[in-house]
């Protein structure tokens, strides 16, 4: 086989032309072999709410990844809007390219604050059975604004004292009440696992007022759950309409990310198309 190695008599002009040809050949297929379609997809960042954890997004993550989206299911500290938004913002800051923020329940309060001032990076906000507070509003205040929530009847506070002497209370849903309250349309065995692994929220977090509302500057989508016992459906409709969100309603419990991952994924992908 003839060698393709240039001979000593190869001219400088010949080497230059060969180098230019090599450069063009490498550049044509695209960086790292990625297709233009995948390169254009935004990263989906999922923020869970109170009484849940990142695993509540598992069904949604699986479907989004199947569609080619990069996904991050962030851990929400559940300590308060300011604290939790700062943490989520640090996650977003470490992601290259456009981002779509998705919040479930209290996670909606968090994304509304975390995305403020990030309009060039956060291209869409998606609220799944979630709070869309305005500045000066709290999650608890919005819940109490309309009738329908039975959460106050089934929660149990657990008081704690920190090493520095600080005190507070975390709030749980009583395990025996969890399925009816939070996940009525989730299979009983799965609901029991969710109840055992629920993440408590600081009681003070539900009363802490938001300081900003990113939905005023960033396009929003909302999935309203009509069989929700945590956030009254009237509250969800009010907040969604006020934010001029693209709104869809579904007959599902508050745990819609678990019971109806297909429906949730469709809403997220609709929002993600605006970020390309």
Automatic annotation (TrEMBL):
SUPFAM superfamilies: alpha/beta-Hydrolases. The keyword Magnesium does not apply. Residues 1-27 form the signal peptide. It comes from the Bacteria. GO terms for molecular function: hydrolase activity. Residues 44-265 form the AB hydrolase-1 domain. The keyword Hydrolase applies. InterPro entries: AB_hydrolase_1, AB_hydrolase_fold, Sec-Metab_Biosynth_Hydrolase, TAT_signal. It holds the Pfam family Abhydrolase_6. Keywords: Hydrolase, Signal. This is Alpha/beta hydrolase.
């Amino acid at each position: 086989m003839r060698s393709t190695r240039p001979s000593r008599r190869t001219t400088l002009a010949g080497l230059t032309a060969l180098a230019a040809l090599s450069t063009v050949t490498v550049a044509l297929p695209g960086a790292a072999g990625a297709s233009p379609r995948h390169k254009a997809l935004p990263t989906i960042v999922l923020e869970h709410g109170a009484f849940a954890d990142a695993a509540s997004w598992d069904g949604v993550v699986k479907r989004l990844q199947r569609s080619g989206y990069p996904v991050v299911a962030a851990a929400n500290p559940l300590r308060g809007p300011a604290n939790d938004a700062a943490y989520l913002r640090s996650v977003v800051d470490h992601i290259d390219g456009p981002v779509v923020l998705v919040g479930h329940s209290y996670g909606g309060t968090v994304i509304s604050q975390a995305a403020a001032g990030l309009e060039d990076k956060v291209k869409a906000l998606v609220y799944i059975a979630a709070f869309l507070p305005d500045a000066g509003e709290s999650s608890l205040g919005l819940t109490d604004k309309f009738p329908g929530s039975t959460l106050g009847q089934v929660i149990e506070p657990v008081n704690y004292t920190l090493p520095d002497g600080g005190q507070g209370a975390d709030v749980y849903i009583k395990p025996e009440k969890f399925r009816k309250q939070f996940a009525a349309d989730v299979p009983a065995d799965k609901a029991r696992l969710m109840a055992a692994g629920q993440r408590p929220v600081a009681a003070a977090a539900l009363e802490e007022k938001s300081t900003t509302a990113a939905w005023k500057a960033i396009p929003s989508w909302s999935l309203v759950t009509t069989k929700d016992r945590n956030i009254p459906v009237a509250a969800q409709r009010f907040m969604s309409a006020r934010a001029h969100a693209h709104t869809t309603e579904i007959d599902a419990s508050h745990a819609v990310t678990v019971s109806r991952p297909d429906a949730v994924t469709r809403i997220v992908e609709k929002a993600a198309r605006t970020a390309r």
